[in-house]
Design brief:
This protein has two domains: 83 residues, Golgi alpha-mannosidase II (Immunoglobulin-like); 189 residues, Vaccinia Virus protein VP39 (Rossmann fold). Helix content is 27%, strand content 33%. It is built from six helices and 17 strands. The strands form four sheets. The chain has an eight-stranded mixed beta sheet with strand order 1-16-17-15-12-9-10-11. A five-stranded mixed beta sheet has the order 2-3-4-5-6, with no helix packed on it. A two-stranded antiparallel sheet has the order 7-8. It starts with a strand and ends with a strand.
């Protein structure tokens, strides 16, 4: 498992009974996690002195309960800064486990010693966008949600990257990729974090099992003659790391060679030292 262990402003303090107790900067939150299938004693004081608690309901949704949590606050990862806010379905606007991928591709970009153009699809609030821009890349950030794109701009500004070469687009990712192919545009790297299910700004339906192969195949057409990397993130339980490896193998590696590595990504739990799985990633990178 690839572990995001470089955080100072974030940690999982404890896990029990389908929930995790987390520290986000100065605040402690309790959120549900389907991987936490054990019921162990809740000895950390944060279980009773949390600042926010997301309660699941029997219909699959839920709601927040707050205990002095501000509407927005910030945490940092190295030189990067992120604006947080509790919103729909337990989220805060950031997936801390992705830092392990930020470190990976940030090093590739810095070591390339050349201009790198990155396409970030389903780019959410821009964690990968600001990480790539901070490493020196020019980034095209695409997400179907206008609110998420605005949030990404705020994160870039908070990270000192307001004037970085980042192009923000509110668009359906699949339609954008198809237009870029017709335009003849190319990128040195692709990052994608597709949801299991979603809708584009025009009501377009996205279902990952039905569409991910075609999208990856199209994105491979957007790669430059000398591509640097291709990253697929997945929170869909049906897409195991081996499936991501196969996807990258029959699309990107078949044309460009290079190396594929896939694994679960996760975060350490302070109380036990164990790692909590938080999805999977498939990485392709150029090799000499």
């Amino acid at each position: 498992m690839w572990i995001a262990d470089g955080w100072k402003d974030y940690e999982i303090l404890d896990t029990s009974d389908g929930e995790k107790l987390e520290r986000w900067g100065d605040y402690m939150l309790i959120r549900p996690d389907p991987q936490v299938i054990w019921n162990t004693p809740k000895e950390h004081f944060g279980w009773k002195r949390m600042d926010g608690h997301y309660h699941r309901n029997s219909r699959g949704g839920g709601e927040w309960e707050f205990f002095g949590l501000p509407q927005t606050w910030q945490i940092g990862y190295g030189e990067l800064r992120f604006n947080l806010s509790p919103f729909s379905f337990k989220h805060t606007g950031l997936f801390p486990e992705q830092a392990v991928n930020w470190d990976w591709f940030g090093e590739l970009i810095r070591n390339s010693k050349r201009p790198i153009k990155v396409l970030n699809l389903f780019a959410y609030t821009g964690g990968a966008t600001v990480a790539a821009a901070a490493a020196g890349a020019a980034v095209t950030h695409v997400d179907a949600s206008k609110g998420m794109v605005s949030w990404a701009k705020e994160n870039a500004a908070a990270s000192g990257l307001a004037n970085a070469p980042i192009r923000y687009l509110v668009d359906d990712c699949a339609k954008f990729v198809a237009r870029e192919i017709r335009r003849g545009n190319h990128y040195d790297a692709v990052i994608m974090d597709p949801p299991s299910y979603g809708r584009g700004p025009g009501g377009e339906v996205w279902k990952i099992e039905d569409q991910i192969h075609f999208l990856v195949k199209q994105c491979a057409q957007l790669l430059s003659d000398d591509p640097l990397f291709f990253l697929i993130n997945s929170y869909t339980t049906g897409l195991a790391p081996s499936v991501l490896s196969y996807l990258l193998g029959i699309t990107v590696q078949e044309k460009y060679g290079g190396k594929i590595t896939t694994d679960e990504i996760g975060l350490k739990v302070k109380s036990t030292g164990l790692a909590l799985p938080s999805g999977a990633s498939g990485r392709w990178e150029k090799t000499d």
